[in-house]
Amino acid sequence: MKDQPSPLRETDDDARKLARVLLRSAWHAAIAVLAPETGFPFASRVLVATDIDGIPVILVSQLSAHTKALARDPRASLLTGEPGKGDPLAYPRLTTQCLAEPIEHSNPFYARIRARFLARHPKAKLYIDFPDFLFFRLKPEQASLNGGFGRAYQLDGNDLVIQSAANEEIAARATETVRDLVERHPDVEESLATRLKAPESGTWRICGVDSSGFDMISGDFLLRYEFETLAVDADHICSNISKIAYSIP
């Protein structure tokens, strides 16, 4: 009996980029945890944002079943990728196996994570500071990318994390970076939306920047753009964004 060919393709840069976009552009995701009472997989839906290093972040109530499960066993899987019209299996999706790390109010990164989460999910302001809510960072360990029929890849967790010495410096200046960029170029967000062929959905705004790219939001639409190379500082981010917005097609 002949050996069956592997269904996996060799993981290349295009696959890594697609995986990063699927994870970092997620508005929400399905999360699977292990129920402590039975050991069975338990799936739920969570809102998703990303920290400055690209690691996904969720905000959850300590009363929810998936939070209690993560407190007992930090292993979780996150499914991201939105289907469109027609066969949902024809659209790319990413399953990321993660280890959950709780981020409570005393954590030095709490304020940064809170700000980045609210920039993406402003309606969460209604409950984000309730005493029973906390964040988890979901550190990727490995991931399975299905880019559509016949396009399966296996990725390492590090493929999904922004490996940059500039992360902390960029995080400290992120809000200022976006504000200064918009003050210098009042039409930059409109130009970006046009250039990136964003869905027609009212006003688009930049809601997050990092070494690897930027996020834009309009209503319930979220758009992620990945730079060709990592930005080394805030000025480099502004330069990259300006080139994308105003370069000749």
List keywords for this structure.
28% helix, 10 strands, 7 helices, six-stranded antiparallel beta barrel, 249 residues, alpha+beta, three-stranded antiparallel beta sheet, globular, 31% strand
Account of the 3D structure:
Helix 5 (174-184) runs parallel beside helix 7 and helix 6 (188-195) packs across helix 7. The protein has helices at 13-24, 65-72, 110-120, 167-172, 174-184, 188-195, 234-246; strands at 28-34, 41-50, 56-61, 75-80, 93-103, 133-146, 152-156, 205-210, 213-218, 221-226. The chain is α+β, with helices and mostly antiparallel strands. The relative contact order is 0.15. The protein is 28% helix and 31% strand. Strands 1-2-3-6-5-4 form a six-stranded antiparallel beta barrel. A three-stranded antiparallel sheet has the order 8-9-10, with helices on both faces. The protein is globular. The mean pLDDT is 94. The protein contains seven helices and ten strands. Strand 8 (205-210) and strand 9 form a beta hairpin.
From N to C, what is the helix and strand string?
A: HEEEHEEHEEHHHEEEH
Which percent range describes the beta-strand content?
25-35%
What spatial form do the alpha-carbon principal axes imply?
globular
Helix content: 25-40%
Biggest sheet: strands side by side, in what order? Answer: 1-2-3-6-5-4
- Care to count the β-strands? 10
Main sheet: strands, sense, barrel = 6 strands, antiparallel, barrel
Continuous helix count? 7
Uncertain residue ranges? none
Gap between N and C termini, in Å?
53 Å
Structural class by helix and strand composition: alpha+beta
